[in-house]
Amino acid sequence: MKTALLCFLAATAYTAYAGPARSDFSEHRVYPRFIKFPDGNEVLHDVDLEAPAQQSFLDEVNRNPANNQYLLFTRRNPRSSQSLVMNNVGSITSSNFNPNHPTVVIVHGWLSNQETNINPTIRDAYLNKGEANVIVLDWRRLAISNYVTAVRGVPAVGRGLGQFLAFLNSVTGAPFNSMHLVGFSLGAHLVGNAGRQLGGRVARVTGLDPAGPLWNLNSNRINPNDGIYVEAIHTDGGYTVGGLGIGADVANADFYVNGGISQPGCLTNVCNHNNAWRYFAATVTYNHIVGNQCSSSWQITWNNCSGARLNMGNDDLRKSGSGRFRANTGRRYPY
Length: 335
Description:
Blueprint: H1 2-18, E1 34-38, E2 44-48, H2 55-63, E3 69-74, E4 77-84, H3 89-93, E5 103-107, H4 118-129, E6 133-138, H5 140-143, H6 147-172, E7 179-184, H7 186-197, E8 204-208, E9 229-234, E10 253-257, H8 269-286, E11 290-293, H9 297-302, E12 309-311, E13 323-327
Parallel strand pairs: 5-6, 5-7, 7-8, 8-9, 9-10, 10-13
Antiparallel strand pairs: 1-2, 3-4, 3-6, 11-12, 11-13
Helix pairs in contact: 2-6, 4-8, 6-7
């Protein structure tokens, strides 16, 4: 009897730790007013989710949504960027941009910039594999503002990215169906808005652990209509206070990696959160992480999904699929 009681208590404790508090991964999640959220160097900052937004700055962002840095890398200039400028045709025609190659746009998160690790990691994965136009969007002018202001300005900067890509298309003829927009955390919602600006015509939109705070019921968050194929990779969507990702279905295909809450080898939410872009970069190189479709969140939690298989991430512009999937990884690269 004593042994049975101990087993029951252990199972209950495990469920509370490993699984969601609800019977489904859901956007109905309540965040406390004061949270901690990381910058691009994985340093946590105090955030007041009820802090006032900087309205005068947001007004300027809305007037000039495309006024950011668009930095091009190709195999001809894999380490030294070329600046592409909105409405400056010469900046495009004099660059190494090749409309016959796929175009990949990488978008960082809050308190980050072009130097943040996500950018060179994904850039190098693509350029080491083949020809591509890799464009790093540096949107630091908004990203360095307080979290509430950054959230409020993300839709406008996303529209600006869409306007820039429309300009790129008009100058070079680069087709939208050869474009893949990849964003991390706040950047995931940003690329969703960029795809929406283009009428969902881009080939792929990938959200890497889309940010949760102030997004769970936000109509401007990434959604399945933002591209021909929209994918989300969830790595820190736990219902604990520290969960940084949205932890809910937002795409055509939603991958809950290792259950979508905690990652092998990670002891912090920041590590869990950042592993989303690490996993994605590895799949561009190896295309080796495969998910099984799940019929319920309990299957995700208990790792017994047995539905159709779909490769997570990768660089396939013709990829398709729908549903929620669990994908399992190892703790060390390439996972």
